């Protein structure tokens, strides 16, 4: 229950950065009044290190409490932070994080508006995140991805001195992270503050957590600063969280390089059993894997980077009887440690408009957003056939002379169904909201409030049987790469829920993806799936 008579605490939630309060259950930082008073009674350290009800629900149940925080408020918080007077005589470096599977990034064109003339930013370093989710469709696929990012930046007006660099990483599996840290320490050093910007679900909070537990952060900070809440629900980080950046002195850079050389000389057989177990788990989750270590503090374990609710939260319903009250023993920075510190800030995610995720419940979002390496699913369709991606997208092959290949890249949990044009409407009416199409879920009642699918006609001309001509991106539900014989003209009709964006992506993100398939399954339009092997960077291969 809320109690509007109790003033806000002035203490930030350690999960999302919102000010802790018990006056409004629909606002950020809410803690039930009884729990709030109990924590306050323990003195100034009582609330420090605790999390709000929303972060608790996200961490324990994957559910997000609805909050009254419109998109304009997100932009206001970020814009106000960037307009702060420059500290240390230099404006901040902006780390813009985008999800490479979401190209073209819907928020990137908004970046110049945030960087108005009165924003003293020193430049933008673009971080293409979640590369671990994408299978390699050919040699050099990462170089091609980087070129696509560079083109998107140029289109958004980011070029020249304004664009510091473009890096491809996976904040979750660690791929590319040591390279990103070296790049930051080499070029930016400790010249000013750093702000993480990006759309919701771009992986900013995961990146923040990974940097917090790396050589980029002051060595004592991970023991003092809590990690950002990591969750698939849009807009998890509600205010500004920060950690102090370590000063990369010549001695520190030398010691770090020695550690990286030593680790790169190891083979997988030379790793400890704990490291092997952790690495094997990451290989299951992503195609590209890296190891993020620490030079200046002995690593306790290779624990997963994700938010640890047992360490940072409490139960809403009962007192934490079995959990030691770590907030009473929390370390604090000394004045000398932070008086001249440069900080890395995590900011609220900028909400993507026209996005299908905005229409979904938290359970549905968890099914739609890929959390593991995407396994491509390829189908061969004749004119008059229809492909459904759950009940969130549909592609009709209306006209063409020959068969064409349709490769689906989406969460492995979303079902794909192929049927005929004559049966498609009946299948959608009968199965939308049911287990057969899976998302949305909730039956007839759910579908009454869910927007109808609206069509868009698309004409494509094939360029060969091994190279896709375009991707049909079904908002944030995934995309379908279309491959057809050279000069073959196709008339397609694609559907997404009303109010969401359907994008024809040319050239496609993974043009040769239809070749990553097994044998045709007899009597069906489907091919057996084929999952490429994972690659671990900075680890010597044997044989």
Would you give the CATH topology of the largest domain? Answer: Rossmann fold
Under CATH, the homologous superfamily of the largest domain reads P-loop containing nucleotide triphosphate hydrolases
Strand content: 15-25%
- DSSP strand tally: 18
Q: How do the strands line up in the largest sheet?
A: 3-2-1-4-7-5
Mean pLDDT, as a whole number? 83
* Proportion of residues in helical segments: 10-25%
Terminal Cα span: 63 Å
- Report the uncertain regions: 64-69, 298-328
Number of domains: 3
**Given the helix and strand composition, which structural class is it?**
alpha/beta
Give the overall shape.
globular
CATH C-level class of the largest domain: Alpha Beta
Looking at this protein, list some descriptive labels.
543 residues, alpha/beta, Rossmann fold, 3 domains, 5-stranded antiparallel β-sheet, 15 helices
Walk me through the structure.
The strands form 4 sheets. This protein has a 6-stranded mixed sheet with strand order 3-2-1-4-7-5, with helices on both faces. The radius of gyration is 24 Å and the shape is globular. The protein is of the alpha/beta class and 543 residues long. The model is unreliable at 64-69 and 298-328 (pLDDT under 50). It has 3 domains: 1-67, no CATH class; 71-264 and 335-353, Rossmann fold (3-Layer(aba) Sandwich), CATH 3.40.50.300; 358-365 and 372-532, no CATH class. The chain contains 15 helices and 18 strands.
